[in-house]
Specification:
This is Major facilitator superfamily (MFS) profile domain-containing protein. It contains 6 helices and no strands. It is mostly helical.
Length: 152
């Protein structure tokens, strides 16, 4: 048997230290809350956007810009995570992501038309940058804390 499969077989959550368990639980909770926040828009935003005069196509693009931003920025963050620092990247990404999620929730109070559309695109783009930062940093932190069990 090779070294990797032995490490995976030997991994047990019972043998992990309390601090590492708390780290895993915190990261899982953070990831769950963030993804819940991202997916919570789907039932409500299209109706709100149509009240503001936004077409369904543009509404789809507003949803899509978030994922495109993550796709484009994650490799850049991955390259610079060691220079920026994983902890700083995680915390700042989470703060940007959370702040933009709150801001996106109050955009319906803004003006209709083009200004609303631009604000939505800006907000979702910044939210995608924050999400990409904290997810990249989260994987780096977990890989650092569990070097023998990265695949697990």
């Amino acid at each position: 048997m090779d070294e990797m499969s032995t490490a995976i077989k030997d991994f047990s959550i019972k043998r992990v230290s309390k601090n590492k368990k708390l780290l895993l639980m915190g990261m899982a909770c953070m990831n769950f809350c963030a993804t819940t926040c991202f997916s919570l828009l789907a039932p409500f935003f299209p109706g709100e956007a149509s009240f503001k005069g936004v077409s369904q196509t543009v509404t789809g693009l507003i949803f899509g810009i978030f994922e495109i931003t993550i796709f484009a920025s994650a490799p850049v963050y991955g390259k610079y995570v060691s220079r920026i620092g994983a902890k700083f990247m995680f915390i700042s990404g989470a703060m940007v992501c959370g702040g933009c999620a709150i801001l996106f929730g109050v955009l319906n109070k803004g003006p209709d038309g083009t200004i609303f559309i631009v604000m939505c695109f800006l907000c979702r783009t910044l939210e995608g940058l924050g999400c990409s930062a904290y997810v990249t940093a989260m994987f780096a932190i977990i890989a650092y804390e569990f070097p023998a069990n990265v695949a697990t």
